[in-house]
Automatic annotation (TrEMBL):
This is diacetyl reductase [(S)-acetoin forming]. It comes from Lentilactobacillus farraginis DSM 18382 = JCM 14108. Keywords: NAD, Oxidoreductase. The lineage of its organism: Bacteria, Bacillati, Bacillota, Bacilli, Lactobacillales. NAD(+) binds at residues 13-15, 60-61, 87, 153, 157, 183-188. Transmembrane segments: none annotated. It catalyses: (S)-acetoin + NAD(+) = diacetyl + NADH + H(+).
Length: 257
């Protein structure tokens, strides 16, 4: 490839921002997609100011048409398209007794629907461009084992592993690989919010809430977004060309399989 182009959803902060910056270091031009245009614009400016090649796009991954439009816009801007990272997601705290139709439908629309639309849009574009590509989906440690109080989030992340395996088989003939990454407890604003809600529900302090998720990490520390970005870097690069349908754990040693 004369030019490597990657599109990352949910790129305005946290893991998505770290992935965008890591892929920039790997030589990619990056399209940054987010619901809040100002957030992805800020990340794009930082990347461009440091010699990278980034472009901000506003889109809601729950909206199929907006995902397809984002992929089209990125391709027109950069002239090619090679990798999509379906990273965007939400993580409501939902003990089973608190699950409502609105919470369930909204979470699945973003976490699962956004991945499905991303796979559709990317594979269609790879076909149009007459070359293969890489599709990388965000699952989770919570998509490998059930975590209390995360009924809806866990369900969406288990589903992403299934979609990853299914579409990997469907798209392999077209030289398109589909893999997922499964972070553990990552120090991000979203994780802080989850831990606070778990603690509040139990009448405990914030530190107790974080401990419920981090106490079983073998390496003894929370993950940094950059740790996850390194895993995505591998999945986006040539060293993973013979890998498809896999969901890689990058959790510091929480789940062993």
């Amino acid at each position: 490839m004369s030019k490597k182009v990657a599109l990352i959803t949910g790129a305005g902060q946290g893991i998505g921002e770290a992935i965008a910056k890591r892929l920039t270091k790997d030589g990619f031009s990056v399209a940054l997609v987010g619901r809040t245009k100002s957030k992805v614009e800020n990340v794009a400016k930082e990347i461009n100011d440091n010699g990278g090649d980034a472009y901000a796009i506003k889109a809601d991954v729950a909206d199929r048409d907006e995902v397809f439009a984002a992929v089209d816009e990125a391709t027109k801007h950069f002239g090619d398209f090679n990798v999509i990272v379906n990273n965007a997601g939400v993580a409501p705290t939902t003990p089973i007794s608190t699950v409502t139709p609105d919470v369930l439908n909204n979470t699945l629309a973003i976490n699962l629907g956004g991945v499905v639309w991303g796979i559709q849009a990317a594979s269609d574009k790879f076909h149009e461009l007459n070359h293969g590509g890489k599709i990388i989906n965000a699952s989770s440690q919570a998509g490998q084992v059930g975590n209390p109080n995360l009924t809806v989030y866990g369900a969406s992340k288990f589903a992403i592993r299934g979609v990853t395996q299914t579409t990997a088989r469907e798209l392999a003939k077209d030289n398109i690989t589909v893999n997922a990454y499964c972070p553990g407890i990552v120090k991000t604003p979203m994780m802080d919010d989850i831990a606070k809600k778990v603690a509040d529900n139990a009448g405990k302090p914030f530190e107790w809430g974080m401990e419920q998720f981090s106490k079983d990490i073998a390496l003894g520390r929370l993950s940094r977004p950059e740790d996850v970005a390194a895993c995505v870097s591998y999945l986006a690069g040539p060293d993973s060309d013979y890998m498809t349908g896999q969901s890689l754990l990058i959790d510091g040693g929480m789940v062993f399989s």
